[in-house]
Every structure is written in structure tokens, then in C-alpha cells.
Amino acid sequence: MADTNRPTFNLDSHTFYWLTQVVGARDRELAAALKAHQLRVPEWRTLAALFSRQRCSMSELSDATTIDRTTLTRTVDRMVRSGWLSRLADANDMRITRLSLTAEGRKLFSRIWPDAERIDTIARAGLPEGAAEMLRWTLQQMKQNLDAGVTAADTPTSTKSGNGAKQRAA
Questions:
Q1: pLDDT tens readout for residues 21-66
Q2: Is the pTM of the predicted complex or chain greater than 0.90?
């Protein structure tokens, strides 16, 4: 007997399936490139975030890197011991510790960046002009939606071809 309550689901048409596939493939390539520098992907994300944003609190860094606080704390501790990061007091709030790259951390970022940029270029190969910018915009909008807690009632619907039924975008 067929399960009539079983939802219709096609993994290959699910947006987040493809997002995780791309990130997973990129992380595997990046991990291989990082081995020469004795780094792992979470350490690279930390280096990149701090290189771009200069000084971050642990909370800001966790948000920027999408690394959970426990893992990030261990990652930051290792990076401080390695001389790539320093902990600084916040000028306005002594309860907050800011993290910043040291000169060695900036040099390490500069040595790794060409490999990361090469992987990014490979990932974007063959995309039509403007596609990468549109993808960034789309992902930023999706993140804003999730952060705002957009409900199903707030999302746009699209008409399914053939039967006129409405469905949410995957």
C-alpha cells in the first residue's frame, strides 16, 4: 500500500542540498591546499574573517565564520599559541575581548590567499556574466530571510507549470 501522506521531495532540486555540495567540494579542495601551511578550514575561515574585518569579538567572529563558539574557542586558542592572532581589550567595553591578526597572521593569509582565490575561480568557471554577483545577492537575501525568521506565509509562491498549484520555492 502506498503512503499517501509521504511528501513530494526531490533532493536534486533542493537549494540547500546544492549549497552544501558546493561548500563541501570547496572545503575538500581548500583542505588539501591548507595542508602545506599546517592549517585546517576553520582556521582559514578565521584568518579570512579577521583579515577582512580587522578586529572582531568572539561573537562577531562566530557569526562571520559560521563556526560554533566551542569549536571557535579551540581554533582561536591554537591560532593565538601559533602567533597568528592576538587578543586585545575593547576600547569601549572592557568585558569584550577583540581578536586581531598579528603580522605573522597577515603574512600567513597572504601566502594562502592565492590558493583560495584559485579555488574560487575554478568554482565560478563557466558561469555567465553577472551570475556570481546574482548568486551572492540571492544568498545574502536568503540569509536575511532566515535571520529575520520569515514565515511560510511571508514567502513568495510560484505557479507550478501544468496544474496551477502553488508551491514554495525550494
A1: 999 999 999 999 999 999 999 999 999 999 999 899 999 999 999 9
A2: no
